[in-house]
Amino acid sequence: MTNSLDDFNEILSPDEPLAKHTWLKLGGNAERFYVPKSREQLIALVQACVAADMPIRILGGGSNLMVSDAGVSGAVIKLTDPVLSAISVDGNRVTAEGGALLSRVVSESVRSGLAGLENLVGIPGTVGGAVVGNAGGRNGDIGEFVSKVEVMTHAGELAERTGDELTFAYRSSTITDLLVLSVDLELRPDESDDLTARMKKLWIMKRATQPLADQSAGCIFRNPRGLSAGALIEQCGLKDLTVGKARISDRHANFVVTEDGATSADVDSLISKVQHAVADKFGVDLELEIRKW
Q1: Is 171 a residue of the active site?
Q2: CATH for 87-207 (3.30.465.10, 3.60.160.10, 3.40.50.2300, 3.40.630.30)
Q3: Catalytic residue at 289?
């Protein structure tokens, strides 16, 4: 028997400000904000929302997300440790629940002497979000290591995606389900010390070129095929371009940095100015990598 939404009032925060749950620190409120305390409660809550025809959004690390100033209606379900955060290693396979931070999955695989994920060091967010968006960089993407994904569908049903159901492309995948419950990653053995050294080198390079100490949300735009969005923006002379309390980073032009008091309207305006400038100068249409609610 499906629970009613009233059964979850103990984990409900009405009109919760979403700004404090995202890296950009902006946006309006969630009409209904839930923080489940267990995997079982999470699944039951999703099924209750589906039964009530309540729109559902899943919030992980909030690193690649911009929330409208108007906020969002329906239910926002926040994944917090320890719910969906377990990581286990069996031979060459790392199994991580969808809410586990990608940084923890990377560290655990390196510590276990398994190679492949060290290239993802410094990428924020959860492993579930990373798999859905095929997170990666110039040294490779996470999708090449994914062998199985356990999901919850928009109908509230449990399913597994394997084989032909798993296709990955640049910053995208065929996983369009509501929620990633767990991911199996097939890696290869290597010396843990060598992997650690490689990971530290990549981390130092990333720190030197990205505004990791600022309030930002990772790359705003996808790289056009064979091109660098950051380089195109920089060649338009847009580093440090400011709208309100939001600006293009002077360290990496594909990052937007926000200050206290910034609004989504500020960032939207900045995005629009950048897209128009790059289209006018290079004839290239920049597509968003950041998600918008």
Answers
A1: yes
A2: 3.30.465.10
A3: yes
**49 in catalytic set:** no
Contacts of 115 (CB under 8 A, 6+ apart): 109, 187, 188, 189, 190, 195
User: Which residue, 289, 269, 278, is CA-closest to 220?
Assistant: 289
Question: Which is the catalytic residue, given 93, 104, 171, 198?
Answer: 171
pLDDT digits 0-9 by tens, 6-61 = 999 999 999 999 999 998 889 999 999 999 999 999 999 999 999 999 999 999 88
- Determine which one of 49, 97, 118, 219 is catalytic: 219
Residue-wise burial string across 117-138, b where 16 or more C-beta atoms lie within 10 A, e elsewhere: bbbbbbbbbbbbbbbbbbbbee
Residue spans of the domains in the chain: they are: 5-78, 87-207, 229-292
Q: What is the pLDDT of residue 239?
A: 87
Cβ pair 98, 59 in contact under 8 A: no
Which DSSP letter does residue 158 get?
E
Does 5-78 match 229-292 in CATH topology? no
- Confidence class of residue 213 from pLDDT cuts 50, 70 and 90? low
Instruction: Kindly report the pTM of this predicted structure.
Output: 0.84
Residue 238 clears pLDDT 70, i.e. is over it: yes
Per-residue pLDDT tens for 54-107?
Answer: 999 999 888 888 999 999 999 999 998 889 999 999 999 999 999 999 989 999
User: Quick one: which H or E segment has residue 93?
Assistant: strand 93-97
- CATH value of 5-78 in 3.30.460.10, 3.30.1490.20, 3.30.43.10, 3.30.70.890: 3.30.43.10
